Input
Amino acid sequence: MQAARNTLCWRLILLSCLLVESSFQDFGGQTQFICTSVPKDMDVCAATLQNSVPGEDLKTTVMQLRETVLQQKETIMNQKETIRELTSKLARCESQSEPVDARHGGRRKEAGSKNTMGDVSRGPADTLTQLSQTLQSLKQRLENLEQFSRSNNSVQANSLKDLLQSKIDDLEKQVLSRVNSIEEGKPGLRNETEQRGRVESTLTSLHQRITDLEKGQIENRPLDKFQITFPLRTNYMYAKVKRSLPEMYALTVCMWLKSNASPGVGTPFSYAVPGQANELVLIEWGNNPMEILINDKVAKLPFLINDGKWHHICVTWTTRDGVWEAFQDGVKRGSGDNLAPYHPIKPQGLLILGQEQDVLGGGFDATQAFVGDLANFHIWDRKLSVGEIYNLATCSSKAKVGNVFAWMETSLDIYGGASKWTFEACRQLN
Output
């Protein structure tokens, strides 16, 4: 009887050793066994309990021990995962050398570090995805042109389509090669600036060829019946107004916008002059409300437009007391004063659609780019009346065009893959 009992105890002891050993091996540790001599005729169970946990069931103790070890293992593994995440974030932070913009609470790039290929801080994979989406958009336009050429039996259109398809394939290879170089850290990155320039030049050339081809479909379209689409949040898609603004002591800016971008729709337009990059800016960036900036002074606007629907917005301003008013869809939504009072809008600047300028004509930040559609952008050098703004928002025949800038295809140059499409505000509302 005593022998059987000793055999059972030895099995329980062996089981406990195996459980502890398994737990420590799962964790990656090392095990060490300590042997203790026991008199020949002594009760093994009694000796074991005397040297371990008197008065407690051996099996329960073993299971509790295993459970404790497993819990500690899980805790440490979670800590390791947290350390890996923090290390990854630290590496990303160290790779970014952008100073903080106190006004917007975000990142800014110096003029010399302008990235012509998009927001590289998001990583090579995101850059490839972003540019692939751009190429996909261009491919879709080519497919539309292909259908047009089939229906009209246009030999010229087919020839251009084949050429454009070849250009897209070459561009995809360049982008893939660039991203692979970034990921592998090849020495060829010393020529990265030249490579970026070549890719951007190819993209702009490709866009121009597609635009020329599309003109075959819209030759009879009125020059003001169009919209500009910015499909991606990049720092290379934008439109540039060919003429500067004059000196203004009052103004009204109106436009149609459609966007569902989040957070923030970005920067529909920015006007910079020498010495002041934020002479006149409309921006909704991050989780901030939309703002109008004049001479770097800020007024928050009560616009809610990121629902994927077309909205007509207008902002009026006069230099006397800096009085401003904001209208959405023909209705006054807010007003204020003391916005850059007695400061005239300066001339000899550059007006950009779709990007926020850090320096005159550049320093674009992808995180502040406009994403969506923009149309019927007009500027007046006076404050429009409530009735005039309502006529614009309701497509009245009495609506007037801007006397400082009027929305015309011939007044703009488009870069980086932003596209133009036919647009009629009244038809969009119906």
Summary: The first strand starts at residue 100 and ends at 101. The CA atoms of residues 16 and 62 lie 6 Å apart. Residues 226-429 form a domain with the Jelly Rolls fold (CATH 2.60.120.200). The helical segments are 2-27, 44-51, 58-94, 124-152, 155-184, 192-214, 386-393, 425-429.
